[in-house]
Design brief:
- This protein is of the alpha+beta class.
- It has three helices and eight strands.
- The protein has helices at residues 12-34, 68-86, 101-111, and strands at 39-47, 52-57, 61-62, 116-120, 122-128, 134-139, 144-147, 150-151.
- Strands 1, 2, 3, 5 and 6 form a five-stranded antiparallel β-sheet that branches. Strands 4-7-8 form a three-stranded antiparallel β-sheet, with helices on one face.
- A hairpin with a 2-residue loop joins strand 7 (144-147) and strand 8.
Length: 156
């Protein structure tokens, strides 16, 4: 069949499949281009043998780009944020709300049905534009222990 376009010789199901794939591709491109500003996330995590668990997340911030310079900007902002919020990793530091940093984390974990957490160092991480979480180099001075949503001194 010469002279017919390639799509004309396809079965209707094949045409439908190709059209769906094309629309999905367009939708993906639209979502990717809709991200108007590069962004950065900062969070605190505890480590388990086979996983990391986020225990607190700071508000998202806008950065200049998603490239290397934006990643450096994100890391530096997160280090500053983590150190200022915790007085350089002190879980017993009293916040402006009258709670220790550790108490704030334990109470938030309890709201997420995590009642007990014992002997965990809290690590600071950052994420650039939806990429992988990266370690900031910031960690708590002591271990975090939560008992029924209450921050307690850890006993090994």
């Amino acid at each position: 069949m010469q002279g017919q376009p390639a799509l004309a010789s396809l079965h209707p199901r094949e045409k439908s499949f190709i059209m769906k794939v094309f629309l999905l591709l367009l939708a993906t491109i639209a979502v990717a281009s809709a991200q108007s500003e590069p962004w950065c996330r900062c969070a605190a995590f505890v480590t388990y043998e086979y996983m990391e668990m986020m225990v607190y997340e700071f508000p998202e911030v806008i950065i200049d780009s998603c490239e290397d310079d934006g990643a450096k900007q994100c890391k530096n902002r997160c280090i500053k944020e983590l150190n200022e919020a915790t007085n350089n990793g002190d879980l017993w530091y009293m916040t402006d709300m009258g709670f220790s940093v550790g108490q704030y984390i334990c109470a938030d974990l309890m709201r997420h049905t995590i009642y007990f957490l014992h002997n965990h160092v809290v690590y600071g991480y950052y994420e650039v534009c939806g990429g992988a979480w990266q370690y900031t180099g910031v960690k708590s001075q002591e271990m975090l222990c939560c008992n029924g949503g209450e921050h307690e001194h850890c006993i090994a």
